[in-house]
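Troubleshooting log. The previous structure file for this entry was overwritten by mistake, so regenerating from the original sequence record. Sequence copied from the archived sheet and checked twice against the printout by T.R.
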Amino acid sequence: MLEVVLYLILIALFALVVFYIYIETQRKKIIAENKKAISLRVNKVKDNFKTDLKIRVEHEVLSVAQHGIVYQICNNFFVFQKITPNSINYCEQLLKKVITAIPLLDNEDNAEQLQQPISVFVSSLPKTANGYNVNFYQNELPKLINHLIDSQDDFYDIGDEIPENNISITAA
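Regenerated output below.
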């Protein structure tokens, strides 16, 4: 009788070990899948940003050198920050603001006039990777983006006034 109980205990212990290994394997598999999904999302965000920058180079809003410098915003984001869903969302929002702040223009004259604010923005970016720290992304980059947007608002206000003045001069 004691032998039967001992065998049952050993079988139960073996079943528990097998069950634990199965559960642990499943947990590791889920963690690996989540990491892969996060990695794919980060790559997608980077690819989208790179594509948007390339379009701006094709429209001659950015030079090739400026493209490389601006791309560092995206490329260095996770150097000093953990990759979490919240940090990916924040990165994506910042990158969308950067793209929005560097508009595509149909008129080459306007592109030339916008080069100065864009050049100021690009030259204000850190020169080394360690400059792309949490403080830069949380405090400095949003200010730089807002400054670029404000400079364009001033440009568009001036641009809106110029045709009206030309019309009134032509009409006189």
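Confidence is low (pLDDT under 50) at residues 158-172. Archived copy saved in two places this time.
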